[in-house]
Amino acid sequence: MTVLSFTKMQAQGNDFVILDMRINPLPDLGAEFIRKITKRRYGIGCDQLLLMFPDTEADIRLRIFNNDGSEAENCGNGLRCVASLLLEEVGGGGPSALSIRIADRMVRAEKLQNRIRIHMGAATVTSYNDSHADVEIGNPHRVFFEALETFPEDRNIEIISGRIGDDVYVDIIERGAGHTLACGSGACAIAAAIWAMEKHTRPQTIHMSGGHVVVSGTPDSVVLEGTVSLVFTGEYHILSGEISGNQSV
């Protein structure tokens, strides 16, 4: 039996199990094992599993897995949780900023009092019409201004349910995780879609079921900011041969 140490964190109710592969390297995780450890009531339970690896240029490299076992390219709230964890490791005398490599980009994170800010890089609006906008920010999103169409299954879905000035109220359906309380990259996609439609770059406060974040910057350099919190740490006991299974990711 293998004992696996983990950290559980959340950002606006978007929750994560974090494994540190720098300290406890494991073989490739099987999709079946990922589904088991992330399943609520049966495993630890979370929206996404986050794996931290060493990197030659960034402070760490991060891999992101949805709770259906598929791999995601980006996760703004997960990045903020991991950044908070790493900055706590170095303490007050260490750096106040760090870099994290994900699938297609390197992002910079910094701590601001009780908030974590991520410089997410570019968010590209690839197309839009009166009802929706498609946005790429490492992972694909469709932002609905009016939920009048069938939702595609190959991207994250953000549905704007109301707006008051620059406060935007939304519902989230994440590819590979289903309905979640929040989505950081989705919040960035929403801001990018509004900026493209309305020809401005005012900061947007994105209100989701689990809380709110602020998105600022420009489409070429999006900034995501909000609170995160540690939920608990623990140990997960793994039976022999359980990690890799028959299908690896």
Break the fold down into its secondary structure elements and pairings:
Elements: E1 2-11, E2 14-20, H1 31-38, E3 48-53, E4 60-66, E5 71-72, H2 76-90, E6 97-101, E7 106-112, E8 115-121, E9 124-128, E10 132-136, E11 140-144, E12 156-164, E13 167-174, E14 178-180, H3 184-198, E15 204-208, E16 211-218, E17 221-226, E18 229-238
Parallel strand pairs: 2-3, 4-6, 11-12, 13-15
Antiparallel strand pairs: 1-2, 1-18, 3-4, 4-5, 6-7, 7-8, 8-17, 9-10, 10-11, 12-13, 13-14, 15-16, 16-17
Relevant terms:
249 residues; alpha+beta; Diaminopimelate Epimerase, Chain A, domain 1; 2 domains; 18-stranded mixed sheet; 3 helices; 18 strands; disordered C terminus
Q: What's a quick, concise take on this entry?
A:
The chain has 249 residues and is an alpha+beta fold. Helices cover 15% and strands 46% of the residues.
